[in-house]
Amino acid sequence: MALLELQNLSCGYGEMLAVSNLSFTLAEGEILALLGPNGAGKTSTILTIMGHVQVKSGALLIDGRDATRLPALKRTEFGLALVPEGRRLFSDLTVSENLTVGGYSRSRNDEKRNLTRVFDLFPRLFERRTQLAASLSGGEQQMLAIGRALMSMPRLLLVDELSLGLMPKMVDLCLDALKRLNKEGLAILLVEQNTSRALDVADQVCVLASGRSVFTGPAEAARKDVDLLHSYTGAAA
Ligand SMILES: Nc1ncnc2c1ncn2[C@@H]1O[C@H](COP(=O)(O)OP(=O)(O)OP(=O)(O)O)[C@@H](O)[C@H]1O
Ligand SMILES: [Mg+2]
After folding, report:
1. Ligand 1 proximity of 44 Cβ (cutoff 6 Å)
2. Distances (CA, A) of 16 to 44, 54, 56, 90
3. Is the CB of residue 22 below 6 angstroms from any atom belonging to ligand 1?
4. Number of domains forming the structure of the chain
5. pLDDT digits (tens, 9 = 90+) for 13-39
6. Are 49 and 19 in a shared domain?
7. Whole domain around residue 127: which residue ranges?
8. Measured on CA atoms in the order 221, 223, 226, 230, is the torsion positive or negative?
9. In this protein, which residues make up the domain named ABC transporter (predicted)?
10. Is 42 close to ligand 1, i.e. is its CB under 6 Å away?
11. Residue at which a domain ends, from 106, 135, 152
């Protein structure tokens, strides 16, 4: 059964439609890359899935259950967690404190276990656990944003613009971590400007342009026609 299913979903702000009639399914344990140029509606889609942007029509199913009108807090309970665009860390809190905030919905025992798991995934965060988030490098901040989301023990991680502003080495580190988490069973919805890198890790691909899907299908099909995909996403081939 699909972990997440969008059925002709339209969403937007006030009168304005940001995304129209979007449909895709994400199965348990899969990675779906959501691609497209600036303003295509990627963040709006992610925020709608998290319950922060208004659904205008269509439906959103989690585990086959209608979650279209489910409050945002409940979606966390259903196993969704967000790594937001721009990371949005608590800059005046330490690395450990940021992680603790991410695990607020879990018991103390879970918190300890999850902290160990995050520090095992990102040893750099352990080394910097007493440092303020604001003092971390961009790559370390992205690791912390991922770690904070993992603290709620999600089944589906939504990552918005993983590689934005990061050095290639840091992008590798973060992508490797996501691949490892995916091997352990975590489903991931990855929004990425870097089409090639996203295609390397994705099982499914959905490309948006001006709020509409222009390609939805297996990543294998997309990899066979990368030029076409680049023409959709606006990236250089
Ligand atoms: N809070 C908002 N209020 C009104 N319109 C918004 C809001 N946020 C986004 N939009 C509009 O919705 C459309 C889609 O924006 P969105 O941020 O989802 O695109 P995106 O694909 O994530 O772009 P980017 O690659 O630049 O992050 C744009 O036209 C944008 O101006
Ligand atoms: Mg965006």
Report:
1. yes
2. 12, 11, 10, 31
3. no
4. 2
5. 999 999 999 999 999 999 999 999 899
6. yes
7. 87-152
8. positive
9. 4-235
10. yes
11. 152
